[in-house]
Structure formats: structure tokens, C-alpha cells
Amino acid sequence: MLPLARPTADQYNAYYDTYISLVPEGTDPLAQLQHQPEQLRQLVGHLTDEQAQFAYAPGKWSIKEMLVHMLDTERIFAYRALRIARHDQQPLAGFEQDDYVPASGANARALESILNEYATVRAATLSLFDSFQPEAYDRMGTASGHPVSVRALAFMLPGHEAHHLHILQSRYLPNLPA
Fold this sequence. Notes:
- This protein is mainly alpha-helical.
- The protein has a single domain (about 25-175), classed as Four Helix Bundle (Hemerythrin (Met), subunit A) (Up-down Bundle), CATH 1.20.120.
- The protein has helices at about 15-20, 30-45, 65-85, 95-105, 110-130, 150-170, and strands at about 140-145, 145-150.
- The longest helix has 23 residues, at about 65-85.
- The mean pLDDT is about 95.
């Protein structure tokens, strides 16, 4: 299959421009999704559980919390893609990430458990998107009060993760206590 074409501006809320822009031109977002687990494992796989509880500033999430946030978001975006791909026209509610993170219990978990869950969720996401017929990518629905296509969701997923990988590399890891 050819790489997915980028979504048009009418296929998503402009809020997601940042994430979609983090999928380089000409890059298949599903291929980017396939490569990100290795990047993530290289960045955090060597950390201890104590190190993974590090937050770079007061009030910021810990590394573990950020990873679980990435999982929650991936599940929600994939769920939206499934419903829209299946012609579900019911508006899909948004979610408040700042409520999800404390309720996740991420810091009480082992980092390896989170990374294993990450691998499972990513495999399921890739399998889901691989199951879609080409025409499903242009189906439109409503999420968080705005139109969105399956195609746009396929770009938002790796873009959202690329955003957080950048934060991990620029704000967390350089300031990690020894």
C-alpha cells in the first residue's frame, strides 16, 4: 500500500496541526508508528523505576505518567478511528488528560509493565489501521465537537507521540538526576 496522503485542513481541528506537522512530508504515518516503539525503548528502557518517576518541574508529569498519557491518548484516538471507519456518526466526547493522569496510578507501576503495555497497545493500533479498507481513511466523524477523518487520526497518533518523545529528549532526560 502507498503511504497515506496527508489529511486536508477540513478533516481535523486546527489544534492538531502541531501533531500532524510532526509526521514528515512523504512519511507514511503507519510506518512512523511502527518505528516509534524502538525509539521509545532506546530512550527510557534503561531507566530505573525511580528515575522514571522524575518530573522536570513542579506540577509536570513524571516520565511514567507521560508514558501512560501517551497510551491513553493512543487508545482514544484508535477508538475514534474505529467508530468513524465503521460509519458511526455519533459525536464522540473529548477527554480531559489532566484528570486521566492522576487516576492512572502510573507512578505505582513498574516501568517495564508500562513498556509492555505500550507494545501491546501499539500492536493493536497497527493491526486496526491495517484492517481498514482504503476508503475508510476518508470517512468523517465528530470528536471533541469538531470534524475529524480516520486519515487525520492516523497522522495525529504518531505526531502526538513524536511531540512527547521530543519533550522527553529535551526536558526530561537532560535534567534526570544521576
